[in-house]
Design brief:
This protein has 195 residues and is an alpha/beta fold. The protein is 31% helix and 25% strand.
Length: 195
């Protein structure tokens, strides 16, 4: 998928690896007023579903830090969709994209449209390394997305990329979810910068 020119709150660009190579996947989240459920669509596998649940729990437990209104989380269900709906998807590397999509939704603030990301998250907010970095960055480059947030632990994987691609890309290396959110969501306000 090509880069989208604008992203409404709740939408974030992720990078995934398939047998055919890297792809850009947009994660789209919407509030379900007065709902309590977590609705997941887009043929998400078990590991990806767990990433959404981990992201939601992280945001609940760090709502004060991130200045997210807990009533918004408490009183609304959430629908998370990852197009294309007919393509099965799985793996942990969309964790940072899930948490960014949900934070953007709860804060009603758009994510930078020029930025894509990949990385696994933990419940305590660590960003863990993932595979397929070369293919994912090449996919971002092909889609005209030139800013990528990666796990700090994947920094050494950049050596596998062609120089002409490296020269056109900006990389942000994240150790934790706060690093990701402050780089992905412009003007994010927090009580303090503690993960």
């Amino acid at each position: 998928e090509q880069a989208r020119d604008t992203l409404p709150p709740g939408v974030a660009a992720g990078l995934a690896w398939t047998q055919a190579g890297g792809v850009v996947l947009y994660v789209e989240s919407a509030l379900l007023p007065e709902g309590k459920e977590l609705l997941l669509t887009g043929q998400l596998g078990e590991v990806m579903q767990e990433s959404v649940k981990t992201a939601k729990s992280y945001l609940w437990s760090h709502a004060d830090l991130l200045q997210i209104n807990k009533d918004t989380i408490r009183k609304s269900g959430v629908h998370v969709h990852v197009p294309a709906g007919a393509t099965p998807k799985d793996g942990p590397s969309a964790g940072v994209t899930m948490v960014t999509s949900l934070a953007s939704l709860y804060l009603n603030t758009s994510v930078r449209h020029d930025t894509a990301m990949t990385g696994e998250i933990t419940l305590t907010g660590l960003v863990l390394p993932v595979g397929g970095i070369k293919e994912k960055i090449l996919a971002a480059h092909r889609a005209d997305i030139h800013r990528v947030i990666l796990p700090k632990s994947n920094e050494s994987d950049l050596r596998d990329l062609p120089k002409h691609v490296l020269g056109k890309m900006e990389f942000v290396f994240a150790e934790n979810v706060v690093d990701v959110l402050t780089q992905a969501i412009p003007n994010l306000k927090m009580l303090n910068k503690v993960a």
